[in-house]
Backbone:
């Protein structure tokens, strides 16, 4: 049974480091969650390290600027490791090929300094998907025709955000992972950056070792997130305990309860150690 807790304080005693998801935990895309901000501040005040580990398809500096705009203060965290930073390594490896950017213009900083040549669909040799151009009105199916043409040419795709959906101001919005899943269904090859894949965690471990001046054992790290297939599964695969934050992404309007948790994690081998309605100290 996954215990439902109202406070993270007791679990913080067994942790030196938190890996905290951003969207759905620290904010909802419109406004910050004050309880989560306060919890991170208190954990840091007790000597803890907070690394925001996010599937945002932009470099950490751009993610921090976005957090400033939403209202998440910088004293709530020590560092950021983003999917965008991880994706940059994958993009750099194919920088000699023309890249088709599938996503909004706000994600273009992902190419800064990489010497990438962007191209249209006809001339592209690689697809980099950071999201949907207009995620308020489009779905992955909007790009079915375009993706079918890419699949026929066997173009590889780099997915800079493995999330399928995210909750924005109470609405469920599709992400790059949904586009990538559709492309894989067509037989396309996809290389993923971000959670639940190991590279983003390895980079986060390196950040922690630098901040702490020594490697921190994985049993002293706690992952906090609202994504079952990203935050929770990724942490389990890396040997990290996790806390599930209930959000509309998985539960919709269903209240957090023992039954809803049992349904959500049915058949899942590695479960979170606890669940909360929101990150609260």
Residues:
């Amino acid at each position: 049974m996954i215990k439902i807790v109202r406070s993270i304080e007791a679990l913080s005693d067994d942790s030196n480091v938190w890996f905290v998801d951003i969207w759905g935990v620290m904010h909802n895309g419109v406004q910050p969650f004050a309880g989560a901000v306060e919890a991170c501040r208190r954990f840091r005040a007790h000597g803890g390290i907070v690394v925001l580990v996010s599937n945002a398809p932009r470099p950490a500096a751009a993610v921090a600027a976005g957090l400033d705009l939403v209202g998440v203060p910088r004293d709530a965290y020590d560092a950021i490791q983003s999917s965008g930073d991880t994706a940059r390594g994958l993009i750099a490896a194919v920088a000699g090929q023309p890249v088709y950017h599938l996503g909004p213009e706000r994600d273009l900083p992902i190419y800064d300094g990489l010497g990438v040549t962007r191209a249209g669909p006809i001339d592209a040799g690689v697809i980099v998907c950071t999201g949907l151009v207009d995620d308020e009105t489009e779905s992955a199916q909007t790009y079915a025709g375009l993706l079918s043409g890419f699949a026929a040419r066997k173009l590889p795709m780099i997915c800079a955000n493995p999330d399928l959906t995210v909750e924005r101001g109470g609405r469920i919005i599709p992400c790059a992972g949904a586009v990538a899943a559709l492309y894989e269904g067509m037989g396309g090859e996809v290389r993923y950056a971000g959670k639940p894949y190991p590279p983003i965690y390895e980079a986060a471990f390196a950040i922690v070792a630098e901040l702490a001046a020594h490697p921190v054992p994985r049993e002293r790290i706690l992952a906090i997130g609202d994504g079952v297939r990203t935050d929770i599964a990724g942490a389990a695969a890396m040997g990290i305990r996790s806390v599930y934050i209930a959000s509309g992404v998985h539960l919709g309007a269903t209240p957090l309860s023992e039954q809803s948790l049992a349904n959500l994690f049915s058949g899942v081998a590695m479960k979170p150690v606890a669940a909360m309605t929101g990150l609260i100290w």
